[in-house]
Structure to design on (253 residues):
C-alpha cells in the first residue's frame, strides 16, 4: 500500500506571528488517528522557526525549492544541505511557479532533485501542463518530458525515495480544479511511466494532486485509485481547512 501525503505549500506567505498561530492550530487539531503523512513547505527564512515548533510532532518540514549547487558564490540561493540543516525532511522541486516565473527547465529541476536526494531530503517532483498545452493536446508529452529529465538521471532505488505531484498549471490558485476523472487519467499515465522504470516504483511512489484542492473536493479526488493525497497551496494557510483536507485521506489500519 502506498503512503498517502498531504503537503502544504505556503508559497510567499506568512510572518513569525501568523506562522505560530497556524502551526499551533495544526498541532491542536491533529487527532493522532490518521497515519498518512502531513507536511508544510514554508518560505526558507521561516524554516528554523517552524522547525523548532514541529520537533516531536508528526508534521514534516519541507522547503519550497533548493539550489542546483552545493555551495559557493550564488547570491540569494539556498542549498539542500542548508534546508536539511534547518530540519527539513523534504523539498519541492520544479513547482510550476518556478518553471514559468523563473524559467526553470526540466534539466535544472533534475539537478535540484539530485541535490535533494544527496542531502537525504525526500524530493517532491512537481509536474503539470499549462492550459495552452492541454488545449493543444500535448498534456502527456509535456508530463513525459518533465518526468524523463529526472528518471534519466536516477536509478530506481533513488526514485523510490521520492514523491511526484501532478499540478495542472491552469488549476493552481484559480479555483478551477481538474475533474476527478481528468486528474485520475494523468495520474494513471504517471503510474505507467513509473512502471516502465520498475513495477515496484509504480507500487511505491506516491503521486499527489495539486491545484485548488479544498475541503469540499479533497475526499473525491483522494478516493481515485492513483491519487495518493495532495499538494495544497491556498487552503494550507488556514489550519481548519488544511486539517479537513488531511482528514480526507483514508485512515488505514
Ligand atoms: P493552490 O496551489 O492549492 O492554491 O491551487 C497549489 C500549489 O501551487 O501547490
Amino acid at each position: 500500500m502506498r503512503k498517502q501525503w498531504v503537503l502544504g505549500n505556503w508559497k510567499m506567505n506568512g510572518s513569525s506571528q501568523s506562522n505560530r498561530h497556524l502551526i499551533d492550530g495544526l498541532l491542536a487539531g491533529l487527532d493522532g488517528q490518521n497515519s498518512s503523512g502531513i507536511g508544510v513547505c514554508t518560505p526558507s527564512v521561516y524554516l528554523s522557526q517552524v522547525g523548532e515548533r514541529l520537533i516531536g510532532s508528526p508534521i514534516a518540514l519541507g522547503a519550497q525549492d533548493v539550489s542546483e549547487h552545493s555551495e559557493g558564490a550564488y547570491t540569494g540561493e539556498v542549498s539542500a544541505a542548508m534546508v536539511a540543516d534547518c530540519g527539513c525532511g523534504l523539498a519541492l522541486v520544479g513547482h510550476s511557479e518556478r518553471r514559468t516565473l523563473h524559467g526553470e527547465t526540466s534539466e535544472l529541476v533534475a539537478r535540484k532533485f539530485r541535490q535533494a536526494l544527496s542531502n537525504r531530503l525526500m524530493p517532491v517532483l512537481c509536474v503539470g501542463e499549462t492550459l495552452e498545452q492541454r488545449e493543444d493536446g500535448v498534456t502527456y508529452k509535456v508530463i513525459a518530458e518533465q518526468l524523463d529529465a529526472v528518471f534519466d538521471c536516477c536509478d530506481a532505488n533513488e526514485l523510490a525515495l521520492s514523491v511526484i505531484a501532478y499540478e495542472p498549471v491552469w488549476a493552481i490558485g484559480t479555483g478551477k480544479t481538474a475533474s476527478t476523472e481528468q486528474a485520475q487519467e494523468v495520474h494513471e499515465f504517471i503510474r505507467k511511466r513509473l512502471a516502465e522504470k520498475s513495477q515496484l516504483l509504480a507500487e511505491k511512489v506516491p503521486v499527489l494532486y495539486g491545484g485548488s484542492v479544498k475541503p469540499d473536493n479533497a475526499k473525491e479526488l483522494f478516493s481515485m485509485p492513483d491519487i495518493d493525497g495532495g499538494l495544497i497551496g491556498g487552503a494550507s494557510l488556514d489550519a481548519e481547512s488544511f486539517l479537513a483536507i488531511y482528514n480526507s485521506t483514508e485512515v488505514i489500519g
